[in-house]
Design a protein that fits this description.
Layout: E1 5-10, E2 17-22, H1 25-33, H2 41-44
Length: 52
């Protein structure tokens, strides 16, 4: 069984948030950074990944 991950990405002003769930966090983060799905919510609202 693969572990699940919950992640949150936001825009620069922290006015829009996206909460996602995935079993492959590394791949999913790369997809967000590269805007693999240009019509997705995170791409349309220019959400960024903040690793902390």
């Amino acid at each position: 069984m693969k572990p699940g991950f919950v992640y949150i990405i936001t825009n620069f002003n922290n006015t829009t948030f996206y909460v996602g769930v995935t079993s492959d966090l590394h791949t999913r983060i790369k997809e967000h950074i590269n805007k693999r799905y240009p019509e997705s919510f995170s791409a349309r609202y220019n959400l960024k990944i903040s690793l902390f």
